[in-house]
Amino acid sequence: MARKLITFDFDWSLSEQDTDRWVFEVLDPKKRRQMKTLKATVQWTDLVAMKMKELHADGKSREQVEQALKDMPFHPAMKRGLENLKQRNKDVDLVILSNSNQVYIQTILEHQKIAHLFDAIITNKAEWTEQGCLNVSRRVDPNGPQHNCAIGCSPNMCKGQELEAYVAAKGGWEAYQKVFYVGDGGNDYCPLLHLRSQDTALARYPRPLIARIEREGNLKCSVVKWVGAWEVEEILDTL
Ligand SMILES: [Mg+2]
Ligand SMILES: [Zn+2]
C-alpha cells in the first residue's frame, strides 16, 4: 500500500491569489473596500454572494468575471509539479479543500488546463443563472444541521470534517501511506489536527497558518515551511 493523498487549499496555496478578493479588485475595487469593513459582521461566503449579486446588478457580465479568474496569477512551477507527478505516479489522489467556490476553482483549473488532474474539489456551491449572475452559497446549508467545529472553522464549512469524510469514503486513513496538506490560512489549521505522525503539512510562510501552528501546536504531523510554489514542486518531484 503506497497510496498518497495531497490536499490543497486553493487561495494563496495552489494559486497565487485569493479568488474572492481578486475578482472585486479587478472588476470593482469599491466593493472590495466595502467587503473589508463588512466582513466583521457578515459571514464571508454570504458576503461574497451578496457582492456578486450587486456586481451583476451593476452590469458586470459573466464573461468579465471569467476573464478576471483567467487573469489571476498561477505559478507555472505548481502546474508543472502536479502534471509531472500525476504522469509519473498513478498512486496519488489530488484533492482541493477550499473556502472559495466551485465555479471560481473550475474556471481557473480549466484555463490552466489542469482540471483533469484532481480527484475531488470540496468547496462552496456556485452556479451561473441564465442572466449571467453567479449565485454563491455555503457548502453547509445555513438552514440545515451545522458542523459545530470547535477549532474555529467558519459556518460555511469545517475543513477538518470535510477531510475526514473524504478519507473515510476512500477506505479510511489506513488506505493512505502518507497524506500531505498544502495550506496558508488560519482555517487550514483544523484539518491538520487530523493528520498522523507520518503525514506532512506544507505551510506557506509568512501567512496566518504558520502563526497558528506556532501558537497552538498540538500537531502529530511534521511541518515544512515554504514561500514559493517552486518549493512545493521540489517536494512533489520526490513523490
Ligand atoms: Mg488559502
Ligand atoms: Zn473545523
UniProtKB/TrEMBL annotation:
Annotated GO MF terms: metal ion binding; phosphatase activity
UniProt: Mg(2+) binding residues: D9, D11, D184
Keywords: Hydrolase, Magnesium, Metal-binding
Keyword GTP-binding assigned: no
Cofactor: Mg(2+)
Signal peptide: none
Catalytic residues of the enzyme: D9 (nucleophile), D11 (proton donor)
Protein's UniProt name: Uncharacterized protein
Organism whose genome encodes this protein: Wallemia hederae
